[in-house]
Amino acid sequence: MTHDSRRFLRPEEISRIARLEVRARQIVEGFLSGLHRSPYYGQSVEFLQHREYVPGDDIRRVDWKVWSKTDRYYVKLYQEDTNLRTTLLVDASESMQFGSGPMTKYEYGCTLAAALTYLLLRQQDAVGLVTFDQDIRARVPARSKQNHLYAILAALDAQQPAQKTDLYGVLRQVAEEQAQRGMIVIVSDLFVDRDGLFRGLRLLRHRGHDVLIFHIMDDEELDFTYTGTTKFEGMEETGELVCDPRAFRDGYLAAVRSFLEELRVRCARNVIDFQTIRTSEHLDAVLAHYLNHRHGMRRSGRV
What we know:
single chain; alpha/beta; Rossmann fold; 2 domains; 6-stranded mixed β-sheet; 9 helices; 36% helix
């Protein structure tokens, strides 16, 4: 079977979002050339500042021109350019198969992941991918070459959502394996145990990662407009239910509001960027709003 790995990357959408920049809110480690600043001083092309010489400093870093004018020893400090290292975690569990519109949640999430990959690679940033359900299903190591895009798209296209979700186990494994700080982007409907979810998220934050969550929800999951006797087939082994949805619509919507509020509050408490996205929303508008919001937070000094 041949996978059409380019079907998640629509040229008309990419052309509108190509000018956007994805930048980390915090300084991240790395040694490749890119748009982001490294916390490490070294022999680099951009001068940062002088510091007075102290015993033990490398004598080769002494600025002799300054010494000739001041008769005091100063060393040069430089600031390296470094790349952002991003790992995309895309939920491939059975619940992501649901969709009442043109795309399922999984297809929408893959489109979003493809767009982010495109943007990051344009900036010479390294991007990797993990797809998961109750276990990690596929990995694509982080690379910064332009042709790396198609390896990620092929991995996304190869998945067929079918299992339950264990996000805590996945996040714990990623936290243990990602020794280098970077950005972790989670694309999921978050139909998981919330306490386990936030234990895993705290592990990532404790290790210095910048964590973003794109919470993907279908319109019907948020609005519940069903009428008449309806058979609901549960995903991830949750059974079936035949009922008149009008009888419990108010209770259902109240439960959804509580669910979303809990996610928002607990993410804010753990300094995690969180956004709920409807599968009917235009991708370019979603990214523009979200990235502008992050840029505004970064400039205001709130993060």
